[in-house]
Amino acid sequence: MKRIFLVAALVIGLISCTNNKQQSVHNHDHSTHQHSESCNHDHSDHNHDHSANSHQHSESCSHDHSVHNHDHSASHSHNQDAHSHEHNHGEDAITFSVEQQNKINFEVVEVVTEPLYQIIRTSAQVVPSQEGEKILTATTSGIVSFENKDIVPGLEIKAGQILFSIDNETMADDNLSTRRQEIESEYQKAKSNYERKQALAEDKIISESELLEAETEYLIAKKHYENMNQNFPQGKTLHRATITGSINNIMVPNNSYVEAGQPIMTLAQNDRLYVRADLQSKYYPVLKDIKTANIKTLNDGQVYTLEDLSGRLLSYGKTTDISNPLIPVTFEIKNNGVIIPGSFVEMFITAESNKMGVMLPNSAIVEEMGIYCVFVQTCTDSFEKRIITKGITDGQNTQILSGVKAGERVVSKGAVNVKLAQGSAALDPHAGHVH
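^ thats the sequence. predicted structure below, dont judge the formating
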């Protein structure tokens, strides 16, 4: 019995030694692989690649590693190419792509602080210049008759064109028919006398001085006669246009009686025009500092600078009186075919000032329900809406009292399109973006 006990003990010892040896063979040479006491998963056919990172299991690890192939040789990463944003657009940013900008008249200007002008906003009237306006008067009494039915205000005329005639054949005094006969008789008499003295001079009967005197009388009588035939045919006085321009005003009706010296019509040469504004006397101290002016037509709202019209400040009044306390300021401009003589325009007269400020083109300012704003460029295709406070304007540019600062870039052309893009962005905040 004792022999049997010894053999059994020996067998048990051998088995225990074999198990210890097998456990020691099961050793990871790569990274530390630790299992808790409660880890009861099966390691059969388990192929781990722990060449990079440590793999640890918690005490409650109970998953099955059979037929699992974990590759921890590289860290888990996202593909950064899927994100196209290199900059961060704020929630209120308005996206207006470069492609959209290239399709319209788009422009961005830098905000700068510059000298401001004192601006006088007033109305003014356009009138013909003094040298460009002529008045035709009756040279004799009689019945005025327009050349044709087309003689009306605004008609374009040329110098030398017959406009009207005055017939005084039935007049008792200064009758042109009688005067015509007298002039013709004097002409014929002077002509005969000159021809006779020419023959006498050839025979040396009269002196050269007598011949010259007869020739002078003849030439004067001839001139009067030709003038009568040209301007007073058949007892009528013909009146011609003295300038090339247009008929500005007709002062008498057709077929009416007029007195000698009475104005009949005015002609206007519209190449140069006057623009006259009447200002309150409080502006008198700054009139000496006037530099230029902008003119806005009322029919189409177009604004022209004085330089556009080759204009200049002509004069301003130095005194006032009780009947007219206003001070006239007159500019001379070239007629561009758009500004009509006699019409009224809006003027922005600018004078020098010692103030500084920010001015932006009117095209940069957009109105939204009575609130004015501009669009500031934050990057190439991103813009921010800014509410501003407006100051004075010269018709083309407006002073910005608040809302922007020097160095920022503001949309000066195409601001309305950026505003529309703002509405599109409100419907689709991710429009045009790839996330």
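The two ends are 85 Å apart (CA to CA).
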